Structure prediction request, 493 residues.
Amino acid sequence: MQIRQEKGCYTLYKENEAIGTAVVDGTTILRLEVVPRWRGRGYGSYLLKELLRQNGGLDPKQATRFTAPLPRDAAGRALAQKYGFAPDGSQLVRRRVPDLSAVQLCHAFLTARLAPGGLYVDATCGNGHDTQFLCTLAGPAGHVLGLDIQRQAVDNTNARLAAAGYGAVGRAVLHDHARLAELVQPGTADCVLFNFGWLPGAEHDVHSTADGSVPALRAALEALRPGGLFAEGPDSQMRQTTLVANHHMLFGKKKASSSGAVKPPTGEELLEHYTPEQLRAHFLALGLDQKSVGFSPKPFDPDPAKRDDPRYADPVLKEGALLTNVFNRLARSCFYEAQKNFDGCMPLGAVTPEVRRRAFEALLDYEERMHKVELHRVMSVCDEFIRWSNKWWADGIKAAEASEDADARRQVLVDSFYLLRVACLLMHPVVPVGCEKICDYLSFDFGDFFSWNYDFDSNDELCPAIEIDAGAHRIHELPPRFDFFRKHESQYK
Prediction:
């Protein structure tokens, strides 16, 4: 599939057939239609999304306003509503305000409430982004103190502050935030900011834990002056916007209930045998959103002949194998190939048309299934796409090595890194920990990497111009035998 543009007219082609058109005058959509026999398959959605993207309508950092004529049928109205168009008199209007990440929301909250000249504490300074932000609020008369237990984080933060001209306002020190009281007198801080996790770009062995974080939060409360701000993230509310049918989970073949004769296993019990990501993937794949389903775990059998036999194999591990074997293999193969033959860099360039076509189809199918909340079908889309991607890599690298073709080797890696990013985008709601590890090791910004504004774009779009010109993007070195998606310890037999 491709879109050709000429003087405000967008034409969508499937192979050599024109199946849709759109006419745009600035921010006014004059016409959008798909050939009747191709309607209801997501092509209208793709065309509308693409013209919005190309004209800035999906830019998360700027406000936009688009207009369009009122749709003549229910399908047109549904499509318009899906992308935020609403009736306004004789036309449709789509107003978009910038999307704010959790960090941006927190920054906006603090900006509206903090005055220059105070004492601000960044209790987890990391690479210094939040510390620098606090310096902008503190001003020349204020003071900012950053803390971290990793020397690399402290050095990175101080270097960032010096480069930005805030060396006289803020500094970072090597210190445990649980011992904040040793550096900040009670009742003197105007703000204490936390961003728990690990240092982006570094090894993940050092990370926040409850043992250190809970005392740190108590220390922060002691350090705050009356009326000061303690920020651990933006306020949020859970809202259910879709009515969901009340289906039943069957344990084995019987209805399980905490008050009945058949009691389901507790979450604590299940986590003794499976990882949270294995369970999440399996429960979504069951299709409980559509009907009552059975949950029938079986004891793990290390016998290879039985592990793959449905008569003996644990059905929970079907999705687990997709993660720990196929998805994990695709990710590791890309990284190790880049380290071995491309100087630790991800090569940049155009993606093979067949790969783009397959990714586009998966993204469109995924979007449609998500819109209908068909979560088990979402998992089927992801499963099929990840297995196809892994096969594309395996077949491509085998052919490149057999022919000793360096250009073919480079192209298959360009393709496979793109497929890996699309796979992460699809699977991020299901297995966020593993997908975010991949993003971190790829050295991409989380906001860009997981943004659906770049879903149809190559990896080049996420890279600085200097890297695009060089044709390569530096990635984080992957340790030997590293697993992005680990099995549960009980499964290593």
Remarks:
- DSSP finds 16 helices and 17 strands in the chain.
- The first strand starts at residue 2 and ends at 6.
